[in-house]
């Protein structure tokens, strides 16, 4: 029960942070991504404000190897992570994520946070995102078969 409470509290705090920072405002996100146009650099402070404390938290967690609530940490960032291979699924997924983020101005976290006020556009985005997640494994298998046959 304690774990569920802290998970819900963390999720609510994260969602509130997304709302306050403007990450759920699609025009603000698209302004951040429009480097050669009407660029809005304010989200750099949001990202810096998230990355710096997490870097410190990960360093502390790497030393302790146990979460604050006493549960073991399933993975700990080390100086030599095992999944460092840059392959076609990673590149393709990154390109699709970036294209979707740029076109819609939302990614999964802010999309969920904006459901309460985002109107029908937020719901449509969420449904399209879930459909993409469901379709991705079958599309990947098909691409693997095509690649193997070539």
Quick overview:
The protein is mainly alpha-helical and 150 residues long. Helix content is 69%, strand content 0%.
First CA to last CA: what distance? 52 Å
The number of strands is 0
Largest sheet: none
- If you compute it from the alpha carbons, what radius of gyration comes out, rounded to the nearest whole angstrom? 19 Å
Low-pLDDT parts are none
Annotation keywords:
about 150 residues, mainly alpha, 6 helices, about 70% helix
Describe the overall structure:
The structure is a single chain. The chain is 69% helix and 0% strand. The chain is built from six helices and no strands. It has helices at 2-21, 26-33, 43-64, 88-104, 108-113, 119-149. Helix 2 crosses helix 4. The N and C termini lie far apart (52 Å). The mean pLDDT is 79.
SSE diagram, text form:
Blueprint: H1 2-21, H2 26-33, H3 43-64, H4 88-104, H5 108-113, H6 119-149
């Amino acid at each position: 029960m304690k774990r569920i409470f802290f998970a819900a509290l963390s999720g609510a705090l994260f969602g509130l942070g997304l709302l306050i920072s403007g990450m759920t405002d699609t025009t603000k996100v698209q302004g951040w991504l429009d480097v050669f146009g009407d660029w809005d650099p304010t989200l750099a402070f949001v990202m810096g404000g998230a990355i710096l404390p997490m870097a410190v938290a990960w360093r502390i967690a790497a030393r302790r190897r146990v979460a604050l609530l006493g549960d073991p940490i399933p993975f700990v960032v080390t100086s030599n992570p095992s999944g460092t291979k840059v392959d076609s699924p990673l590149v393709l997924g990154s390109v699709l994520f970036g294209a979707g983020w740029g076109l819609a101005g939302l990614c999964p976290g802010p999309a969920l946070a904006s459901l309460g006020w985002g109107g029908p556009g937020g719901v449509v985005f969420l449904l399209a995102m879930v459909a993409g997640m469901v379709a991705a494994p079958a599309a990947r298998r098909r691409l693997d078969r095509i690649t193997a046959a070539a």
